[in-house]
Amino acid sequence: MPKRGRPKGSKNKSVPTIDVEKSVCPTCGSSKRSPYFNKREKSFIGVDRDGRVFEKVTWRRTKCLECGQHRDDRTYTYK
Which of 16, 51, 49 is nearest to 74 (CA)? Predict the structure, then answer.
C-alpha cells in the first residue's frame, strides 16, 4: 500500500485565504439550502459592485430548506 501525503521534508505550500459571502435566503435569512440545480453560465467582461473585473457569471438555482423560497445564487469568475 503506497504512503499517503507529501514526502518527508517537503515545504508547506502558501495559499491565499479568501472570504466568501454566505448564500442566505432573502425571505427568512436561513443558510440551509437544497443542492444546486439548473446551472447557467454567461461569459463576458464586466465589473461587479465592488469594482472588480470579472469574465464569467454563473447562476445556480436552489431552494431554502426552512421556508421553501426558490432563488438563484450568482457567482463571478474573476480575471
Answer: 49
